From TrEMBL:
Keyword Transferase: yes
Any one Gene Ontology molecular-function term assigned to this protein's record: transferase activity
Record-listed acetyl-CoA binding positions: 134
InterPro entries, per database record: AcTrfase_PglD-like, Hexapep, PglD_N, Trans_hexapeptide_repeat, Trimer_LpxA-like_sf
Keywords, alphabetical: Transferase
Gene3D superfamilies: 3.40.50.20, Hexapeptide repeat proteins (2.160.10.10)
Lineage, opening ranks: Bacteria, Pseudomonadati, Bacteroidota, Cytophagia, Cytophagales
Positions contributing to substrate binding: 61
Name by which UniProt lists this protein: Acetyltransferase
Amino acid sequence: MLLYGAGGHAGVVAGIARDCGKIIKALFDDDLQKIAVAGTPVTGSYNTELFVNEPIVIAIGNNRIRRRISGQITHCFVSLIHPSALIDKTVTIGTGTVIVHGSIIQANSRIGNHVIVNTGATIDHDCEIADYVHIAPGAVLCGKVCIGESSLIGAGSCIAPNLVIGKNCIIGAGSIVTVNIPDSAVVRGNSSRVIRLNA
Ligand SMILES: CC(C)(COP(=O)(O)OP(=O)(O)OC[C@H]1O[C@@H](n2cnc3c(N)ncnc32)[C@H](O)[C@@H]1OP(=O)(O)O)[C@@H](O)C(=O)NCCC(=O)NCCS
């Protein structure tokens, strides 16, 4: 298979590929200063004519860049799922998506194309994750949460049940989200408030 991207996230994706028994035949990056990822040398800029029958994954964490590059690629996309991820049989996963070590995806959730479900993230039942979303390490999505295209759900954040997060949002690391979030919003902090005292 092929990888596009030679930054930090690419090292994670290369590890997943290795643990899935895949061999990386070429590694593309437009930054010619980058030399190698996990022992695999960088081939150079993306080249449509190399390994035309090999599938590719865009191993770039930034949602906007991943989205832009996906429109320039002619190789077919493939998804990578680390063997340690726990994914219910009813879950659907799009193409080009990467499911990282230890993540959990529960019943009837739908995961789009070019999504990252990063280390140890939890997506509970009936969630809908649109294309180019990044669910960062340790984030928790409760049941029936919808995440709009290209949004970043920050590391260790928690999205309460039944909420809708718009497109192109950034949910800051450690946020507790208890209300719907409009498109393009940047959110941080713990918005929870005391609603009653525990007896
Ligand atoms: C929320 C976020 C988008 C804010 O970024 P920013 O606008 O550049 O904010 P700054 O770093 O300039 O910080 C501004 C203030 O917000 C605070 N802050 C930043 N991130 C915060 C967060 N997640 N929660 C609470 N406060 C935060 C800073 O401490 C700073 O406070 P101060 O004004 O009192 O000094 C960013 O910090 C963040 O959490 N991004 C998500 C990171 C992530 O999980 N990435 C996944 C990688 S795999």
